[in-house]
Amino acid sequence: MRKSFTIIEMLVVMGILSILMAMIFPNLTTIIHSSNITSKMNVLVNDMKQQQNKAMSGVLGEATGDKFGVHFDINKYTLFSGTYNVNNSLNYSVDIDSPLQIVNPSTSLPNGEIIFSNGSGEVANFDNSKKTISILNTATNTQYTIVFNKYGVVISAK
Asked: Which CATH superfamily is 36-157 part of?
């Protein structure tokens, strides 16, 4: 006599597997969205540090040569030297892909920018009430915020 599974046993096993997959899948999408926002923030912090290092080392900018900065818009940020000019072909823009967006850059930073002073690398336009950059994931409604001090040092990232 051959031993085998009945159709009912197979249906029960497939039902259990379907329930497990339904419970796991939403957690996987949350992890993917979370890693996406974290990686964008890491790239942003590294780009800011690069601009600060250029200002500290005295690298000459294309405009005035005395400062480097980052200008923020809702869907991108732009690395620039001198004074920010939207039409400057030497600017380097980094897109923030949907569903991510930068939250209120013009109200969370002076003029929506961070400018690093030549030599010291300090934030030239530092305002203690405007020292945060936040990225919102509109799909999951989670927000990641970095706070920096007048020296350009990230003091909080969460």
From this structure: minor pseudopilin epsh domain (3.55.40.10)
